[in-house]
Structure formats: structure tokens, C-alpha cells
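3.2 Worked example (two chains)
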Amino acid sequence: MKDDKDLTEKVIGCAIEVHRHLGPGLLESVYERCLAFELAAANIQHETQKEVMVNYKGVSLDLGYRTDLVVENRLIIELKAVDQIMPVHEAQLLTYMKLAGISLGLLINFNMKWLKDGIKRFVF
């Protein structure tokens, strides 16, 4: 979908702006706050630390899962600040996407010299 591509491009642009100013080496929470600032400045609707409910046998349970960012109720962003993305990080994002019923996701690792090397897009 063109709209999804446009949205991910705008979000990636905001993430690159954050990385350009801060570089690698900080905590995920710092990148989350700064990315939320950039999204707000770009008039992109988003929520931080949105709870993800687990539906178990027809009962919705709040088990403490939180997404880093949900953008326009159709994109989940999982932020990392690690040496390298591991399969468990990808699984985490895919699980959040499944639980939230959102088919689009970005995994962004800010601990990279070039941010473009730390971005993975997922479509569920």
C-alpha cells in the first residue's frame, strides 16, 4: 500500500533526524522520547508505551507487554540500542504485531554508525 510506504518513510525520516543529532550509544528510552518529539513535530499521531493485551481463551489479559511506539494505529515501532539485532528482537516485534492486530512494523536499532543499517521493515 502506498499509504503504508509513505508512513514508514516519514517515520524513518524522523528516526534518521534523531540519530543525526544523538548518534549511537544512548539508552533506548532516550531515542524513544526524541523520536516521539520528532513525530509530534511532523504532526504524526502516535502513542508511546501502549499496552498490548493478550487474548487467552476469550479473555483479554494485561500481562505487562508494551510497545515502544504505535503510529496512527497501523504501525508498531520497536526500538533497540544493541550491538546487533537478534532473532528474539524480530520475534518480539512480530508477536506485538500479532497481538495488537497491526500488520506493519519497524525494528530500529539506534546503536549503528549509519541508522539505515539498523532498520528492518515487517509486514505481517
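3.2.1 Second chain
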Amino acid sequence: MKDMIGYCGLDCAKCDAYLATMHKDQALREKTAKLWAELNNAPILPEHINCEGCRMNGAKTVFCEHMCEIRKCALKTGAATCGDCADFETCRTVGAILANNPTALENLGKRG
């Protein structure tokens, strides 16, 4: 489903927060919270792991809702995804995601 491709090109349908939310999977929610807390050195709790996709109406993780600079930019500019933005080629914000996720670039309809 194309709507599940995030603004940055990541596939929200493959995200553990999305999967835990859709399947009401408390074990996955707990595992994801623990991993993300360790990776981000932040107090992330299982109840924070609820998301229905960054471009969809509904629940979002705290990061996606309030802290993701990519999502903030896309909402401000009205771009459906970063691939639709005139500044895409030179954008450092989305560039950090794309450098480590070649599939995200493909999801945005771009080639490396």
C-alpha cells in the first residue's frame, strides 16, 4: 500500500511499532520499546509503541508525531513524500535516512 510509505521513504508497514499496533502484539511492543530505549538512550516504554503510519490518520509514536524533522517539513511544505520536494537532492535531513536505507530511495521513486 503506497500510503504506508513514510515521508522519508521508509515502509511504515514493516515498522515494529506499526506491526505491534495492528496486531495488538504486547510482546513485540515490549521488545521494541526496550530496543529503541537502548538505541536512543531514552525512556521509551511499551505504551509509547503505538503507530498507524506517519502519513495516516491515527496513532503515532512520540518521535514520529512530535520530533521527526522529516515529517514536520513535509507537513509544512505539503509534500506527499520527500521524493516530491524540489529540495530532495540536496536535503541533509532525508539524506541521513537514505544513506542507510537504499530501499527508502526506491520507495520514493528515486534511484541512487
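3.3 Remarks
Residues 26-40 form the longest helix (15 residues).
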